[in-house]
Amino acid sequence: EPAIRSTLTFSTVKTGLFKRRVIQVARRFGSLKKWADFSNVSLQKLISSFEGTPIYEEGLKEVFTKDLDADGLVMVLGRLRRGDVRLQVVKTGGNPTPVARVGIERVSMKTDLIPPEKMRTVLVESAKARLLNETGNFVCTACWDYMEMIRIKDLPDRPKCPRCGSSAIGLLKVEEEKAVGLLEKKGEHLAKNEEKMCSYAKQTAALIERYGKAATVALSARRVSTADIAGVLEKEPSVSDHFYELVLEAERKSLSKRFK
Questions:
Q1: 179, CA 20 to 30 Å: which among 73, 120, 197, 257?
Q2: How many domains does the chain have?
Q3: Using one digit for the tens of pLDDT, what is the confidence trace for 67-116?
Q4: Does the residue 120 lie in any domain?
């Protein structure tokens, strides 16, 4: 019996069913926010971070009591070993039996199985909606006389300064009041924090000037450096499904670096 339970545990912790249970328990315990977004997180690393905690053990317990019949499995295998019951092979020509079909359908519903191609579409559409609805603080790095908060989806393909006509429009991820010093000082004689903003504005302006709106979409990604964004744009300079996949990958890599 211990060997059976050990093998069952070893197999169970690798399943999506177990991961789902751990996340549910973690939310109940308050360790994860209810609406936390896991699209850019390695679920395996997240689950591993709970290993050895009551959350992990409770997740395992719930799988065994609510999703699996561990006691029933031990009993059946014991009866097979003693010869009380006999294993009968049913030839179905490769098709599931009526009983197996019910089991497959129930497991599919519990684990929310999604075909890889459909999952790819879901992730791309989710990224598209998120990035296009981000709002950026756009500033002209040529005349330093223009700054405006604009939603990414409302931008033209080739953003230009309405004051001087320059396409050297930078994107800052700060509110207007925090960046107003750049305009007041025309990008010169700046404080240390303003120098950082100015440098970032110029870096993003170079990308936007070269790639247009596609750059603003990519720059709206979470915690991704301008160097990594430049890498994405070099591979895919126009907005497409592949473009969004590259942005998501850049976000994942950035997040993984933070947890190393």
A1: 257
A2: 2
A3: 787 788 888 888 888 888 888 777 777 777 777 766 666 655 554 545 56
A4: no
